[in-house]
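Suppose you are handed a protein chain with no further information: no name, no annotation, nothing but its sequence. What can you learn? This example shows the usual starting point.
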Amino acid sequence: MPFKYPQYLVETDWLAERLDDPGVRVLDCTAFNRPDGSGGIRAESGRDSWATEHIPGAGHADLVNDLSDKTAPFRYMLPPAGQFAEAMSSYGVGPGIQAVLYDSTSGSWATRIWWMLRVLGFDDSCVLNGGLQKWKLEGRPVTSDVTPHPRAQFAANPRAGLMADKNEVLASIGGGPTCILNALSQEQHLGTGGASYGRPGRIENSVNVPAVELMDPITHAYLPAEELAERFAAVGATSADRVIAYCGGGIAASNDAFILTLLGYENVAVYDASMSEWAADPSLPMQTG
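A reasonable first move is to predict its three-dimensional structure. Written in structure tokens, the prediction is:
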């Protein structure tokens, strides 16, 4: 089966033919979750990684410093529309520009920024299948050179329903038409290991499709559409009226949400604060095992 919206995922050969196209703006979206020394994680910008090597012409979309809410108590929260629009304008993303997003790790950093662009009303963006990993495996060029691009005028037009909060999640965990979908690893879902967000385990009655398992472990390219659809169907996500994806801080969740969107499921949201908020509040129900 093909993806319903294949335009949101582009291949390396497609991009290689368009590196000099002034209507294409390539952004390296890499960031890192680093151990904080106490069993948790801390956010680290991927700007130094981008400065070392990137696809020729690519700029860096700095999720940590530019594209997260500076006033929020949790990592990576969606910033105010004005802050987001200013950052995208400075990156050269706006009307008449197709933004091509990639990262150097799991793909989830690229899908997080793709999801935020979607939330803020910008549809001319796509994710590079396999990211920098596949690009380099194919022997394609990388550089440390900085390529200037003209400033754009990004206009934010926020859409409702694409971000969820803890109140909506809490109202949905008792069963019914909404599927609460955990994109963290199986061991984190079960509470047997992995990074901790305060309490081990998962949101009560949630199901698990780990984002890291959506791609080929060598090339980082996504699995075939049919196989991806089967994984989501197996946990009941594709038969639900609405899906709310979560993880530790809304990053891996955006990868699950991205794939569901490619497959044609429209009523999908990301729980923005995810386990960073949920696990820290002992009044919110969780399960292990």
